[in-house]
Sequence to fold (228 residues):
Amino acid sequence: NAGVTQTPKFQVLKTGQSMTLQCAQDMNHEYMSWYRQDPGMGLRLIHYSVGAGITDQGEVPNGYNVSRSTTEDFPLRLLSAAPSQTSVYFCASSLPGQLNSPLHFGNGTRLTVT
Amino acid sequence: AQSVTQLGSHVSVSEGALVLLRCNYSSSVPPYLFWYVQYPNQGLQLLLKYTSAATLVKGINGFEAEFKKSETSFHLTKPSAHMSDAAEYFCAVSSTSGTYKYIFGTGTRLKVLA
Fold:
């Protein structure tokens, strides 16, 4: 049972480069989300989706794009990387419409922008 | 708006001593509350969740938390710390405001001293 799978685990980018962080889940969860984790700031929500074709912005969406063409996949795109986007990124999913349903997390992608 | 405050970004305890990690929430309606644990270089794992069925919630690895409405608190405790408990712990509330589904505290890093 794979759960939530994130790739790559590590990535180094130069300022201005673009890339896509991949996230896939096999639990048929409608709700998927992206967080970034920075020291002393906890987890901050970037974007989230409540189902295929539906996405919305979170707390810190600037510089990131998402799309949700299938239930399983929720990629996060950095169009022009900046040093401020150096962070650890987590994808998480859960059952929708149930506020007592916990999030299931991937193991993260550690991104460095130089 | 709902929010979560974790008091103490770093907590140190001796092995065998009581672990107490503090979490206070603000919510205009009864919340759903969660504690997650993050081990180094891993994603977050659910420790326990409060869903109004009982005020004292037992989780994995001997942890428990008590929901106190009068104090708007959901502190995490463990009677006897083990070296393997060293990790970062996050309190989270499930949002009923409709904007963001999960709101996380800034985390508490637990250090266990031999």
Summary: The interface with chain B takes residues 4, 31, 33, 35, 40-43, 45, 48, 58-59, 90, 92, 94, 99-100, 102-103, 105-108 of chain A (CB under 8 Å).
